[in-house]
Amino acid sequence: MTLAATHRMAMGMDRPDTLARLAATIAARRHADPASSWVAKLHARGVPVIARKLGEEAVETVVAALSGSREDLVGEAADTIFHLMVLLDAKGVDFAEVLAELDRRDGVSGIAEKASRSE
Ligand SMILES: N=c1c2ncn([C@@H]3O[C@H](COP(=O)(O)OP(=O)(O)OP(=O)(O)O)[C@@H](O)[C@H]3O)c2ncn1[C@@H]1O[C@H](COP(=O)(O)O)[C@@H](O)[C@H]1O
């Protein structure tokens, strides 16, 4: 594998459609049978349960980062992103809006942005 290809893979740039595909799957599964769909089961339980689940997955990600294996961290990070996307869908927020916000921030240093808020 070339260095450029390795870099693309490391940055996830070889999978530009992953999040868009997952967002579409989550939207499509929202009203599926809760007995066979985790997305539908979460949706049926409501936003507070989904939000709590996201919080649990975020904490599990922190624990994996501090004391778990690399594999644990990858798995918990995936769980966190997935449950964040289920929560956004349940709140009617298009994941593209989050991506657009990240694009808007591109090139704006977090240090400079924080300093501009304290002036
Ligand atoms: N990416 C995911 C995904 N990631 C995690 N999960 C589920 O999220 C649940 C997490 O619950 P728990 O934390 O209780 O499970 P756990 O982490 O194994 O248990 P603990 O270790 O916390 O005790 C598990 O049932 C996982 O299978 C997911 N379920 C679905 N998807 C995607 O959503 C699509 C639709 O799924 P369904 O709606 O289930 O058809 C799938 O095709 C996938 O693309």
Automatic annotation (TrEMBL):
EC number: 3.6.1.31
Compartment annotation: Cytoplasm
Keyword check for Coiled coil: no
An annotated GO BP: L-histidine biosynthetic process
Catalysis: reaction(s): 1-(5-phospho-beta-D-ribosyl)-ATP + H2O = 1-(5-phospho-beta-D-ribosyl)-5'-AMP + diphosphate + H(+)
Gene3D superfamilies noted in UniProt: MazG-like (1.10.287.1080)
Pathway(s) the chain acts in: Amino-acid biosynthesis; L-histidine biosynthesis; L-histidine from 5-phospho-alpha-D-ribose 1-diphosphate: step 2/9
Enzyme kind, highest EC tier: hydrolase
Primary residence: cytoplasm
MF (Gene Ontology): ATP binding; phosphoribosyl-ATP diphosphatase activity
GO cellular component, one term: cytoplasm
Listed Pfam families: PRA-PH (PF01503)
Signal peptide start-end: none
Keyword annotations from UniProtKB, A to Z: Amino-acid biosynthesis, ATP-binding, Cytoplasm, Histidine biosynthesis, Hydrolase, Nucleotide-binding
Record-stated family: Belongs to the PRA-PH family.
UniProt protein name: Phosphoribosyl-ATP pyrophosphatase
Lineage: Bacteria, Pseudomonadati, Pseudomonadota, Alphaproteobacteria, Sphingomonadales
Gene: hisE
